[in-house]
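User: tokens in, sequence out, please.
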């Protein structure tokens, strides 16, 4: 230790070994929470402090945010020398190489990079010209983004148009069916490439593929890069694809001073081209490499790590690692299991448990809302949790997915309900006046808007008097008149429903029944299907979202009636009302806007496990741990591809990533039944739950009220007022 530079003495032995290994190929296997970014920063600092020219160091990562963070940390250690180090993403590096040398492969100096929208328009145009390739194909019959996704997959694997055609002809589609999309994509690919080149443009995937072509074919450029960058580092190496691997190999040059950092156990992006074999085969691809394994975790308690170790050990193709920590054993892993109880569905109980546990734990442990995260496999799982957190007045934010109440199909339905209650709501009125399409075009609408402004009356009143509006033809008036009649008829039904509820006639009319009938009358489901005509699966998902919204009104009614006070009790209670339901949504939306404006980070985080990678929270809830959710049904139904990689292995890695986000407490949950289109469907527990050692788990059922131990509950009760005073004083 006395011979070590002072700036390396704070590193643990494995981190120091990695920081000091500066020559030749190096593989740093950095387990979750083991300080990989810190190690990379110290490695760069060590190179600089031993006299290496900053301009000869190139560090590559996957996001601009990560590159900026690394730059700031290096600058903090070494000062202005850090400016000479090139810290970049792969795509930024590719663009830099093409700007400097792209003319040598026929790319103009001022080449354009097509965004997704321009790419899709180009593909649509080509599809219309290639209709003869597939008998049923046409510009409106195929989703251009699906075609682009397939072309992107080929580019990431460095498969050219000729190779793509061979794959389709042979049926080798890397696990995908050789279907119309594959055939069409193979036919479009060469025309797409030719069109890009003719326009002097490239797409996002070309920023990897074309630099590889440049480095392969041009020895002068290749050698210039070798002289410039003598030390190359790549972060998150498990997320690299074939083109990125080849770029790294070509840039490392004869010195092979390539250091890669990653964790094969956290490779969860195969669906967007990442190839876990890149890190698993690194020693074969770069013979003589030094391997450093970092297993000391600074984030989690030992029980959380033992749960993660137990799960990931069931993946047979991996580099052996076993996470350890000095953070102490910590509490056991809570595993909640729910079943329908006649009053609440299993998923409602699951969501209520999450809200209840967050409230209790925040109070008992004096935490912030931001110390809690709820993770799930798919974004649609957030809906019951969102509803329950809203009802409990718990602030939250949704990351990696659209908030449930902001989805178009839900927002359209809400707009209709607001117009039925208050047709003077012009914003909602204009949103739905021609949805579904009913022949009220923009020209007609703008004439009505102008007329209402001139007359000084609401747009709705002008629409009711459309026959009096100058410049609106008879053909234009008819759909307006029909729309007004429809809304007025629904208003009559709504008032009758409201009156029946006020009179206690809940068996005759309900809010959910009214809304369900309104959705049917307005043909909103048909409109959603028409909006998603190119994807039957997407259409079904969005129709289910609309139906779930209608069902949520029923949930609101049930909860309101359940809260009705006894006759001898005084309470400010009112029967369920659509206006109140919509008001709750409006207030929540306004709160969300204020949170964004004030940039208040103190909110519970809801996110998918994919989006959670790289983050950490004091308390983590992972919900929906059932077969066909995690592991996902697509992986359950799939088979290993020709490389022998098991699709279930990535699902297991995803669970491992979710587990290792937790610092202090991990809560898992699953349901014995789950609602689907109004039916209760039996579910099986996720196979991954059996892989957690039993001694680590505390089993809890839906009958349990809290995870607090008796002594914790007693202490919380005794210190109630003192805690309240402390928490209020912190605000």
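Assistant: Sequence out:
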């Amino acid at each position: 230790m006395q011979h070590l530079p002072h700036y390396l003495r704070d590193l643990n032995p494995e981190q120091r070994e990695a920081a000091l290994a500066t020559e030749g190929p190096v593989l740093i296997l950095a387990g979750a929470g083991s300080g990989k970014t810190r190690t990379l920063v110290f490695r760069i600092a060590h190179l600089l402090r031993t006299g290496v020219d900053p301009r000869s160091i190139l560090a590559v990562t996957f996001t601009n945010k990560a590159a900026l963070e690394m730059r700031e940390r290096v600058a903090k250690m070494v000062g202005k020398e850090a400016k000479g180090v090139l810290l970049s993403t792969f795509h930024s590096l590719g663009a830099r190489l093409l700007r400097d040398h792209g003319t040598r492969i026929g790319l103009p100096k001022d080449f354009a990079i097509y965004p997704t929208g321009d790419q899709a328009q180009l593909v649509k145009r080509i599809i219309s010209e290639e209709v003869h390739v597939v008998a049923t194909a046409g510009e409106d019959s195929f989703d251009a983004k699906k075609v682009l996704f397939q072309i992107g997959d080929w580019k990431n694997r460095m498969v050219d148009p000729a190779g793509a055609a061979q794959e389709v002809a042979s049926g080798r589609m890397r696990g995908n069916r050789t279907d119309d999309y594959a055939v069409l994509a193979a036919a479009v690919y060469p025309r797409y490439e030719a069109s890009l080149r003719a326009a002097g443009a490239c797409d996002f995937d070309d920023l990897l593929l074309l630099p590889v072509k440049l480095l392969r074919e041009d020895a002068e450029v290749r050698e210039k890069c070798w002289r410039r960058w003598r030390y190359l580092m790549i972060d998150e190496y498990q997320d690299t694809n074939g083109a990125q691997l080849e770029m790294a190999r070509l840039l490392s040059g004869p010195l092979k001073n390539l250091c890669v950092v990653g964790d094969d156990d956290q490779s969860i992006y195969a669906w967007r081209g990442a190839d876990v074999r890149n890190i698993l085969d690194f020693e074969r691809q770069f013979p003589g490499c030094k391997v450093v394994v970092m297993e000391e975790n600074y984030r989690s308690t030992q029980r959380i790590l033992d749960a993660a170790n137990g799960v990931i050990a069931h993946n047979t193709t991996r580099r052996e690692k076993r996470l350890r920590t000095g953070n102490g054993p910590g509490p056991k892993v809570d595993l909640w299991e729910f079943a329908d109880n006649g009053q609440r569905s299993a998923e409602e109980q699951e969501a209520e448990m999450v809200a209840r546990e967050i409230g209790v734990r925040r109070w008992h442990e004096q935490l912030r809302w931001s110390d809690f995260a709820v993770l799930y496999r798919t974004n649609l799982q957030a809906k019951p949790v969102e509803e329950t957190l809203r009802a409990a007045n718990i602030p939250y934010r949704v990351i990696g997915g659209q908030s449930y109440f902001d989805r178009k199909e839900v927002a359209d339905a809400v707009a209709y309900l607001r117009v039925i209650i208050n047709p003077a709501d012009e914003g909602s009125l204009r949103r739905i006046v021609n949805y579904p399409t009913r022949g009220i075009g923009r020209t007609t609408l703008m004439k009505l808007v102008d007329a209402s402004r001139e007359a000084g009356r609401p747009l709705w009143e002008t629409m009711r008097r459309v026959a009096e509006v100058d410049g609106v033809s008879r053909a234009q008036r008819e759909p307006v008149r029909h729309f007004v009649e429809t809304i007025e008829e629904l208003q009559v039904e709504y008032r009758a429903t409201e009156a029946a509820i006020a009179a206690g006639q809940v068996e005759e009319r309900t809010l959910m029944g009214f809304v369900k009938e309104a959705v049917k009358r307005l043909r909103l489901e048909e409109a959603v299907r028409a909006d998603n005509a190119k994807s039957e699966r997407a259409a079904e998902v969005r129709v289910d979202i609309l139906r779930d919204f209608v069902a949520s009104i029923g949930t609101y009614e049930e909860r309101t009636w359940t809260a009705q006070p006894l006759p001898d009790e005084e309470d400010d209670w009112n029967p369920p009302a659509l206006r109140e339901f919509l008001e709750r949504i409006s207030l929540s939306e306004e709160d969300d806007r204020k949170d964004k404006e004030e940039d208040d980070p103190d909110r519970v985080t809801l996110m998918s496990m994919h989006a959670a990678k790289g983050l950490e929270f004091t308390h983590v809830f992972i919900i929906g741990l059932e077969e066909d959710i995690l592991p996902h049904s697509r992986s359950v139904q799939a088979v290993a591809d020709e490389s022998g990689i098991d699709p279930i292995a990535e699902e297991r890695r995803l669970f491992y990533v979710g587990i290792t986000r937790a610092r202090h407490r991990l809560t898992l949950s699953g349901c014995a039944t789950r609602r689907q289109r109004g039916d209760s469907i039996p579910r099986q527990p996720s196979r991954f739950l059996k892989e957690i050692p039993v001694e680590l788990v505390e089993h809890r059922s839906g009958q349990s009220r809290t995870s607090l131990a008796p002594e914790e509950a007693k202490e919380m009760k005794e210190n109630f007022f003192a805690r309240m005073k402390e928490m209020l004083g912190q605000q």
